Amino acid sequence: MEQRKKIFVHVLMFLFMVLLRKTSNVEGGEEEDRIFELPGQPKVLFDQFSGYVTVNHVAGRALFYWLTEAQQNPLNKPLVIWLNGGPGCSSVAYGASEEIGPFRLNKTASGLYINKFSWNTVANLLFLEAPAGVGFSYTNRSSDLLDTGDRRTAKDSLEFVIQWLERFPRYKNRELYITGESYAGHYVPQLAKEIMTYNIKAKQPINLKGIMVGNAVTDNYHDNLGTVTYWWSHAMISDLTYKQLISTCDFHHQKESDECESLYTYAMDQEFGNIDQYNIYAPPCNKSDGSSSSASRHSMRLPHLPHLAFRKMAGYDPCTEKYAEVYYNRVDVQKALHANTTGIPYKWTACSEVLNRNWNDTDVSILPLYRELIAHGVRVWVFSGDVDSVVPVTATRFALAELHLTTKIPWYPWYVKKQVGGWTEVYEGLTFATVRGAGHEVPLFKPRAALQLFKSFLAGKPLPKVLK
Ligand SMILES: *[C@@H]1O[C@H](CO)[C@@H](O)[C@H](O)[C@H]1NC(C)=O
Ligand SMILES: *[C@@H]1O[C@H](CO)[C@@H](O)[C@H](O)[C@H]1NC(C)=O
Ligand SMILES: *[C@@H]1O[C@H](CO)[C@@H](O)[C@H](O)[C@H]1NC(C)=O
Ligand SMILES: *[C@@H]1O[C@H](CO)[C@@H](O)[C@H](O)[C@H]1NC(C)=O
Ligand SMILES: *[C@@H]1O[C@H](CO)[C@@H](O)[C@H](O)[C@H]1NC(C)=O
Asked: Secretion signal: which residues (predicted)?
């Protein structure tokens, strides 16, 4: 009799819990964001969630995220935010679909296949499309697209993190790392700084442990100087053009003189040839195959590097840039992702040209932020694919040299699968590493090496020194 009563009470409690869960779901809990399966997706054992977080109620700005949890023991693994750059490019298009995410898109954009070097083998990955106007992230105040810059991106991203943790309370005390590439060289440290400031007064501080950026836009002057130096040292331009660029251009300012601009144009149009600037040794996309390797070369500009082409990035298959735009515009895909629920009045694109062209404000240098993060004990790792000519390794080295950091472990080659993966130097507070033979999107070109880099970063340990 007692036993029966006990069972009855248990059943009642169970039903009560189920009911409780159901009601909490109605209030925008994480279950509403669960992805059951994406069209063309292979079966997987990890959980996925995606959806919107409102970051500004007045304007109606909502940021879109996609969480792919760790493949094993997600509860014991850190939370890692990934951001792509542009400004204006989507981390769903690049980070999730070509670089570190668990799936890659196949050639017909009708299916996905497994990326065995996905970073979700070791961490929970949170892809954030930022700022509003990128990918599925939207704003109901269309003028926002014309005056967004570094500031709003950082503030909205902080609001996103705070609200997202409310939706996913089990991540609240989890170790958080922020990572990204290219123009996210601004977003990542800027968001880290926002979090640090927020934490001063917060009842429940966000457990930020570290940041890692790759081929990162860092410091206007040194980036620009390092870029033309790379072009010269990799025999992409003549001695004369190099000398003229050095003597004519100012390198500090967003707007260069006409004289300097025309030197850049000459270098790119007359001297570069039809190469993939994001990986100078990769074959470029064959334009008659329907892609736009140089057509859009002058159509978009990075605000910090006025001379530089902005174009959708190319990978091993330099024509891949269109696959994502086919797949993520599919109605069934958007439905599965809980994306575009309000009928965004334009198509999903890998990069937003409108945001890019109208970028409002940009830090001239983020080195002061590095100093602050280091002083607060935040782990800082900077890596660089060494065959990228857009934000090249020389740019990063010139910029980092300005920090005058003390060397802890001198320059050495690091290994992955018995090969030199690249070179690294460990400083007090910052680790620098190159990835040999990788282009701008390091995890796309060198997935195994990139995963090793990520593992070492999370462990806070120097990269492997010995043949392994
Ligand atoms: C944007 O407007 C749509 C349509 O009025 C509304 O459903 C949605 O909630 C708004 N988004 C935000 C973030 O306020
Ligand atoms: C892409 O994936 C779909 C769905 O899994 C499959 O039917 C199709 O054959 C694949 N195409 C290519 C080129 O791999
Ligand atoms: C480019 O593609 C076209 C059509 O597929 C082909 O005829 C041409 O040989 C290709 N060119 C190069 C340089 O590969
Ligand atoms: C959103 O959906 C509408 C149809 O409701 C479609 O026309 C539009 O291209 C979509 N936009 C995005 C960004 O997905
Ligand atoms: C645009 O940039 C200026 C500084 O360059 C700044 O004062 C202003 O707040 C920015 N606007 C927005 C909307 O962030």
From this structure: 1-28
How far apart are the CA of 40 and the centre of ligand 2, in A? 8
The alpha carbon of 288 and the centre of ligand 3 are apart by a number of angstroms equal to 6
Cα(128)–Cα(184) distance, integer angstroms:
11
Tokens for 147, please give them: 């005056």
273 lies in the same domain as 356:
no
Task: Find out whether 174 and 78 touch, Cβ atoms under 8 Å.
Answer: yes
pLDDT of residue 3: 63
> What pLDDT sits at residue 256?
84
For residues 446 and 385, is the Cβ–Cβ distance under 8 A? Answer: yes
Last residue of a domain, one of 285, 319, 353: 319
What are the residue numbers of the active site? Answer: 182, 388, 440
Number of domains in the chain: 2
- With 0-12 / 13-18 / 19 or more C-beta atoms within 10 angstroms meaning exposed / middle / buried, residue 187 is buried
Residues 204 and 332 both lie in one domain: yes
Give the list of residues 6+ apart from residue 466 with CB closer than 8 angstroms, or none: 415
Taking a C-beta distance cutoff of 8 angstroms, is the pair 411, 423 a contact?
yes
User: What sections of 65-201 are H helices per DSSP?
Assistant: 150-167, 184-201
Give yes or no for residue 344 CB within 6 A of ligand 4.
yes
Q: Which of 39, 76, 86, 258 is nearest to 95 (CA)?
A: 86
Query: CA separation (Å) from 261 to 219, 226, 243, 244?
Result: 19, 17, 14, 11
- Is 200 part of a structural domain of the chain? yes
Torsion of Cα atoms, 122 then 366 then 90 then 310, to 10°: -130
Structure confidence by residue, pLDDT tens digits, 189-207: 999 999 999 999 999 999 9
Domain extent at residue 179: 34-218+320-468
pLDDT digits (tens, 9 = 90+) for 40-60: 999 999 999 999 999 999 999
From 252, 285, 319, the end of a domain falls on 319
Contact (Cβ atoms closer than 8 angstroms) between residue 448 and residue 121: no
302, 437: one domain: no
Query: Closest ligand to 344 CA?
Result: 4
For residue 301, give both structure tokens: 């500009």
DSSP structural state of residue 34: B
